[in-house]
Design a protein that fits this description.
The chain has about 300 residues and is of the alpha/beta class. It contains 15 helices and nine strands. The strands form three sheets. It has a five-stranded parallel beta sheet with strand order 2-5-8-1-9. A two-stranded antiparallel sheet has the order 3-4. A hairpin with a 3-residue loop joins strand 6 and strand 7. The longest helix has 16 residues. Bound molecules: adenosine-5'-triphosphate and magnesium ion. Magnesium ion (MG) binds next to helix 3.
């Protein structure tokens, strides 16, 4: 287990060691979240590296990553805990078969015992772990509904959950909590107030180039620059869905797989589906617009 980073520079170094290239503001807010023991709320467009922060942090600190993937209708039994009713029933049958008063009295006390508790991600994250407090990733919170968000308030302010039959379970050591949202709806203020907030933006061209160098070390520098400039230009256009960093990496990989050494009309048109995921966007860019972008990028390089 590594120590939690002691400065913003240490956070930058830690993330880079995990092949994540952060900008200074993300590293700063992450440092503060770690230092103050506060949850970190990351909001931003798709594919800009929100989920990846939690994964890299856990692997670099040698902590367990406990992931709660949110969806509509997510409830306490999937997110926090559930009683193992089938096993409880078996226990009841066994006690009945034994047919003496002591086993029955014992049964009532035993039925809501830890053994029958199925722990889901949030409860697991509050328990002690040998490697040190885990990283709890609550991913895509905007997909859940408000009752679940309200439930999270207790967890995020007191780091505890209450199980009526057992009592309150409190974390002795706070997990590192990272919450992500794509902002398909606004998350409630009360929840945001319990967290440090950071908007994860698209990277600058320079940082996106650094990301490519880190993730695809063998890639041709000139091709990588052209891809970055093309994608950055696409983000300026009115599109239904702008490409994220994930698409930049995928596209470069696709071009390398096709042995392309530079972006040119034919190969760009043929591979636009790696970068843009809506037919209307592809139609809007393919052909003339793409050619104009390619011309601008290749001429600027001369
Ligand atoms: N700063 C970065 N440094 C290195 N790689 C990055 C960076 N940002 C994004 N990536 C790459 O982009 C991929 C997508 O990132 P990630 O899945 O974290 O995006 P996301 O913001 O969670 O997207 P979504 O909202 O769709 O879930 C990652 O697998 C990672 O390879
Ligand atoms: Mg994600």
């Amino acid at each position: 287990m590594s120590e939690v980073p002691g400065s913003v520079d240490d956070v930058v170094a830690l993330l880079k060691a995990g092949e994540y290239v952060p900008d200074r503001s993300l590293a700063t807010v992450l440092y503060l979240a770690l230092a103050l023991g506060r949850p970190l709320f990351l909001e931003g467009e798709a594919g800009v590296g929100k989920t990846e922060v939690a994964k890299v942090l856990a692997s670099q600190l040698g902590r367990r990553l406990i992931r709660l993937q949110c969806y509509e209708g997510l409830d306490v039994s999937s997110a926090v805990y559930e009683w193992n009713v089938a096993r409880q029933l078996v226990e009841i049958r066994l006690a009945e078969a034994a047919d003496d008063d002591t086993s029955r009295d014992q049964l009532a006390a035993d039925l809501y015992d830890d053994r029958f508790l199925i722990k889901r991600p949030i409860l697991e994250a509050l328990e002690p772990h040998v490697e040190g407090p885990p990283v709890l990733l609550i991913d895509e919170l905007d997909r859940t509904d408000e009752p679940f968000e309200a439930y999270l308030l207790e967890v995020l302010s007191d780091f505890q959950v209450t199980i009526p039959e057992l009592g309150t379970i409190h974390a002795d050591a706070r997990p590192i909590v990272i919450i992500t949202s794509n902002r398909t709806r606004e998350v409630h203020d009360a929840l945001k107030r319990r967290c440090l907030y950071h908007w994860v933006d698209y990277p600058s061209a320079q940082r996106e180039m650094d990301i490519l160098r880190t993730r695809l070390p063998g890639a041709d520098e000139r091709l990588a620059w052209q891809v970055v400039e093309f994608v950055q230009a696409l983000r300026e256009k009115e599109l239904f869905k702008s490409p994220g960093v994930a698409e930049t990496i995928d596209w470069t990989q696709a071009l390398l797989a096709l042995d392309a050494t530079a972006i040119e009309s034919g190969v760009v048109d043929a591979t636009l589906g790696v970068v843009l995921k809506y037919q209307d966007d592809i139609e809007a860019i393919r052909g003339e617009v793409a050619d104009a972008l390619i011309k601008k990028i290749t001429e600027a390089a001369h």
